[in-house]
Each structure stands twice: as C-alpha cells, then as structure tokens.
User: Fold Iron uptake protein from Pseudomonas cuatrocienegasensis.
Amino acid sequence: MMTSFFAGLLLAYAGMAALCLGMERHFKQVWQHLPSPGQRQALRLAGWALLAGSFAACVLAWGWAMGPVGWLGQVSLGGFLLLMLLPYWPRLAVLLPVFAAPWLGLVGVIQG
Assistant:
C-alpha cells in the first residue's frame, strides 16, 4: 500500500512536470531552446497519461472512496513542489522523477 502511495505521488509530480514542459516558456527555461510541435504534443500526452496512472495508483492504495480525494491532494502536492523547484533549479525539477523512480522500485522490493 505504501508503495502505491509513493507511486501515485511520483506519477503526479512527473505528470505535472511533463505538462509544464509542454509549454514553450518552461521548456525553454529548462533546455534553453524551443520545443518542436511534436515534442510539445508528446509532453502533453505523457503528462495526462502520467496523471491517469497516478489516479490509478491512488485508487489502488485507498480504494474508490478515498482514492480520488487522495489523488487531488497528491496532484496539489506535486504541483506545489514543482512550483517551488522550477524557478531555482529547473533541471533538477524536471529530472527529479527520473532519479526517484529507482528509489521507488527499491522500496517496492523491500516491502515484498
């Protein structure tokens, strides 16, 4: 159950980051060049897919009664963390889910 909680939070943060990078302004802030239209579209689709995965993880962790409520909280928390990191450490803000994913896998293995 705890792994589902962290998976939901990680997916919510990654989804918000992908949606953020789907905007020209933020993509340029992080990578110093404008994205192609295909990159913008792919990032937006990935962002929505990651948010859907986050929703599924929250429903798996808390059930249908509290899962959607927990998901809204996790999306809010992920967006707030991104909001705090993006102005000061834009590359860290974007790469954080990449570094956190192996840790999440390790937690899943430890929990059995």
In short: The radius of gyration is 14 Å. The CA atoms of residues 17 and 94 lie 6 Å apart.
